[in-house]
Amino acid sequence: MELNNRKTGSNSINRGELTLFCSPPKYNRAMSNTEYSPKMYMSVDAHLKKNPEFFETNKITFMLADGSPLADIVPLQVVNGMFDTKEGSKPMLFLDYLSFEGIKRIEVTQVRGLRVSEATHPTLRGKLLMQFNYLNTRGEFEETPRDLFLLGVSYGIHPLHAGVGETKPDFYWVGINQKDLVLGKSIQEATKQFPTWRSGQRGKQLEQIPNFIRN
Fold first, then answer.
1. Which is more confidently placed, 126 or 69?
2. pTM
3. CA angle 174, 131, 171 (to 5 degrees)
4. Residue 114: is its pLDDT beyond 80?
5. Long-range CB pairs of 14-23, under 8 A, 24+ apart, other chains included
């Protein structure tokens, strides 16, 4: 389906002659129907392929920066593209999402809590990063924003979050955390998962705690 006349790029990292491709967990096609559960942590693409009812049963509402709701959606991916202005085209990040009308696109900065920054680490040089303030698993708002090079979107309950009492599945931003690269971690070590409720897209994070964490 054609979304727009904007050019979008691949989420890959070029380091000289080395290209590193990273992605969230994929669905194991050998998995039987009885083993599948919507709570399983895997890529949204894998859920959609496995479960024809996934959109209908797991659609959510994101809040926009202006306070209005973006209802009945499933976030699919964040892509690089070009945004046309009177001064010419400029690079921008876009969120692709599934709705009742099909696949739609919105600028990342129109979504509550999301901003765009330029990468400063050599590994990510030339890339746009998605930035947000995160409520960590200790219940603390982090002072330093996260700058994430998006690799994909997953859904379910990540084992690390299940371990801190989260019982409700959520959509997760999956990507390379620039700060971890600065600290000398590898690409694999720097690849992290952030539930959207903790990064502010579902509304005020503290108000979301009773919806996702058991007492």
1. 69
2. 0.84
3. 35
4. yes
5. 15/123, 20/187, 22/151, 22/176, 22/187, 22/188, 22/191, 23/151, 23/152, 23/174
